[in-house]
Design goal:
The complex is a heterodimer. Chain A contains 9 helices and 7 strands; from the N terminus they run ααααααβαββαββαββ. By secondary structure, chain A is of the alpha+beta class. Chain A starts with 5 loop residues before the first helix and ends with a strand. Chain B has 5 helices and 7 strands, in the order βαβαβββαβαβα. By secondary structure, chain B is of the alpha/beta class. The chains are: A alpha+beta, B alpha/beta.
Chain lengths: ~400, ~120
C-alpha cells in the first residue's frame, strides 16, 4: 500500500467501539441493527430515485433528484462505516465519508432552497386537471361544431346537386324547345316559299296578259306587287338561312377571288338602290383572298344596305380596302345615325334589332348582320364595328389572304 | 313545232302559275302531280324538257329523276330540278339532273333555263 494512504487505514492508535459495550452487548447490537436498517433504506432509496429520474428525464429539477440520490447514498455509507467502527476503528475513513456527506448535503440544501420558489409555480394537479377538463370540453364542443358543419355541408352539396339537376333538366327542355322552334320556323319559311313561287308566276302572267290594254296605273301596281313579292322572298330566305346557321353550318365554298372586282360589282349594284348616296371605293388589294365569292358578296351587300338604310340624311358611303401579308381588311363607313354603345357587342346576334325611339322605323328581322357575321367567321375572317351616335358607323371585316 | 314542257310538282298552284307563264312563251305544257302519273304521262306526252320538284309530297323527287334517267326511253330528256331548299343544288349530285333552280325563282330565270334546255 502506498505510504500516503497508510494513515487512513492506521487503526492501531484507536479503540473500536465494542469496548464501550462490554457490559451491555445487547444495546450494542440494537444500535447496530438500527444503523443496518437505515443503511439498507439509504441504499435502496437512491436506486429508486435514480430509476425514476432515468425513466422520466422530462421532470424539471432533475438535478435535485441526482443530488438527493448522492446525498442519501453517502448517508447510507456513513451508517455502514459506523457499524464497521464497532470492530474496526477506521475513524479516518469515517471522517472523510462524513465530510463528503456534509458537503453534498449542503449543496443539496442550497439547490433545494433555490428550487422551491420555482417549484411552487408549478400548477397543482388539480389545476392541471381542471385545465385538462376545460380543454376536453372545448375539444368536444369543437367536434360538435365540426360535425354540424359537415352535416350542413353535406346538405348543401345535396341541394346543389338537386339544383344542378333541375337546371340541367330545364336546360335540356330549353334546348329541345329551341330545336322545335327552329324546326318550326324552318318549316314555316319553307312553306311560305311555295305560294311566293306561284305568286311570281301569276303576276308575270298577268303583266303579260294585260300588256295590250295596260294603263300606267296598272303597270305601276303590278310593279309594286312584284316589289313586295321580292321583299317577301328575301325575308323568307333570310329567316331560313338564319335558322339553319345554328343547325348545320352553311357550306362556304372557298375559291381564290379578286376582292377588288367583287367590291366593284357589289358597289355598282348597291349604287342603283340609292339616289341620295354616293358610294366611293378607296384602296385596292394586291392579293387574292380565299373566300366564297357569293357569300362575301352577300355580306358586303348587307353591310352597304345597312349603311344606306341608316344614313338617310347623309350623302356618302366610303369603302376602304387595306391589307397586310395575312389578311385584307374592308371597311364600310357611313355618316348616318350611328349606333349607341350599348348595342355594339350585341349587334351581330341573331334576331337582334336596334330599337330606338326614332320617328323612322327600320324594317328588318335582325338576321342580316347575324348571317353576315357567320359567313365572315366561317371564312376565317373577323368582323367588328365602330360607331358614334349622330356621326356614323364603320363596319370592318377581314378575309384571309390566299397563301402560297 | 312548239316545244313541250312537263311540269311535275304536287302543288297545283305552282304548276298552274308555271303553266300560265310558259304557255305565254309559246310552250306546250303537261303537268303531273302524283308519282304514279309521271311515267305514263311522259310516254304519252313526250316532253322536250321536264321540270321536276325535289320534294314530291314525301316521295323522293331525286329517286324519280334517277329512274327517268335510267330508262332508255326517257333518259335523253333534260331534267331541271326545282326546290325550296337552297342546299338542294348539292343534293342533286348523282341524281342525273341536268340543272337546278331554287324556289321561289325569278320568272325570267326559269324562262331562260327552259329555253336553254329545250333547244337540245
Amino acid at each position: 500500500m502506498p505510504s500516503i494512504f497508510r494513515p487512513f487505514f492506521d487503526i492501531s492508535s484507536f479503540e473500536p467501539h465494542y469496548v464501550h459495550f462490554i457490559d451491555d452487548v445487547g444495546l450494542m447490537w440494537f444500535i447496530i441493527a438500527g444503523n443496518a436498517l437505515t443503511a439498507l433504506a439509504y441504499f435502496a432509496i437512491p436506486v429508486a430515485l435514480w430509476y425514476f429520474i432515468r425513466k422520466r428525464p422530462d421532470i424539471p429539477f432533475n438535478a435535485l433528484f441526482y443530488l438527493f440520490s448522492l446525498f442519501i447514498l453517502l448517508c447510507g455509507t456513513h451508517h455502514i462505516v459506523h457499524i464497521a467502527t464497532f470492530w474496526y476503528p477506521i475513524y479516518y475513513i469515517q471522517s472523510m465519508v462524513d465530510f463528503a456527506t456534509g458537503v453534498v448535503s449542503i449543496i443539496t440544501a442550497v439547490v433545494l432552497f433555490r428550487t422551491i420558489p420555482l417549484a411552487l409555480k408549478i400548477p397543482s394537479i388539480q389545476e392541471f386537471q381542471e385545465k385538462n377538463e376545460n380543454l376536453q370540453l372545448q375539444i368536444s364542443k369543437r367536434q360538435e361544431a365540426e360535425a354540424e358543419v359537415r352535416t350542413l355541408n353535406a346538405e348543401l352539396e345535396q341541394r346543389v346537386k338537386d339544383r344542378t339537376q333541375e337546371i340541367e333538366h330545364v336546360n335540356q327542355e330549353l334546348r329541345e324547345s329551341e330545336k322545335r322552334k327552329d324546326a318550326f320556323i324552318s318549316m314555316v319559311s319553307h312553306e311560305l316559299k311555295t305560294p311566293i313561287t306561284s305568286l311570281n308566276g301569276f303576276v308575270y302572267a298577268l303583266q303579260k296578259e294585260i300588256q295590250p290594254v295596260s294603263t300606267l296605273k296598272i303597270n305601276h301596281y303590278l310593279a309594286k306587287i312584284q316589289e313586295q313579292v321580292s321583299k317577301q322572298t328575301k325575308l323568307v330566305t333570310d329567316i331560313i338561312e338564319a335558322t339553319r346557321m345554328d343547325q348545320d353550318a352553311l357550306p362556304v365554298q372557298k375559291n381564290l377571288i379578286n376582292i377588288n372586282e367583287l367590291i366593284k360589282n357589289i358597289v355598282d349594284e348597291m349604287q342603283l338602290t340609292t339616289d341620295i348616296h354616293t358610294i366611293v371605293v378607296r384602296g385596292k388589294s394586291t392579293k387574292l383572298v380565299l373566300a366564297d365569292s357569293e357569300k362575301i358578296g352577300q355580306s358586303l351587300s348587307n353591310i352597304i344596305s345597312n349603311a344606306i338604310k341608316f344614313s338617310p340624311y347623309a350623302d356618302t358611303i366610303i369603302i376602304s380596302v387595306s391589307e397586310d401579308p395575312y389578311e385584307v381588311t374592308i371597311k364600310v363607313q357611313d355618316f348616318g345615325l350611328g349606333i349607341d354603345e350599348k348595342h355594339l357587342n350585341k349587334i351581330f346576334n341573331r334576331y337582334y334589332r336596334v330599337d330606338e325611339n326614332t320617328e323612322l322605323t327600320y324594317p328588318g328581322l335582325g338576321v342580316g348582320l347575324y348571317i353576315t357575321a357567320q359567313i365572315i367567321q366561317q371564312s376565317n375572317g373577323r368582323i367588328w364595328v365602330e360607331s358614334k351616335r349622330e356621326e356614323g358607323s364603320s363596319f370592318y371585316f377581314t378575309l384571309p389572304v390566299a397563301q402560297g | 313545232m312548239a316545244k313541250k314542257v312537263m311540269i311535275i310538282d304536287d302543288d297545283a298552284d305552282i304548276t298552274a302559275s308555271l303553266s300560265a307563264v310558259l304557255e305565254m312563251e309559246g310552250y306546250q305544257i303537261q303537268t303531273a302531280h302524283k308519282p304514279e302519273e309521271i311515267f305514263p304521262k311522259i310516254f304519252s306526252f313526250n316532253p322536250d324538257v321536264i321540270l321536276l320538284d325535289y320534294l314530291l309530297s314525301g316521295t323522293d323527287g331525286r329517286e324519280i329523276c334517277i329512274k327517268i334517267k335510267s330508262s332508255d326511253r326517257t333518259n335523253k330528256i333534260p331534267i331541271i330540278m326545282m326546290s325550296a331548299h337552297p342546299q338542294a343544288s348539292t343534293l342533286i349530285n348523282g341524281s342525273g339532273a341536268n340543272d337546278f333552280i331554287a324556289k321561289p325563282f325569278d320568272i325570267d330565270d326559269i324562262i331562260d333555263c327552259v329555253g336553254q334546255y329545250s333547244q337540245s
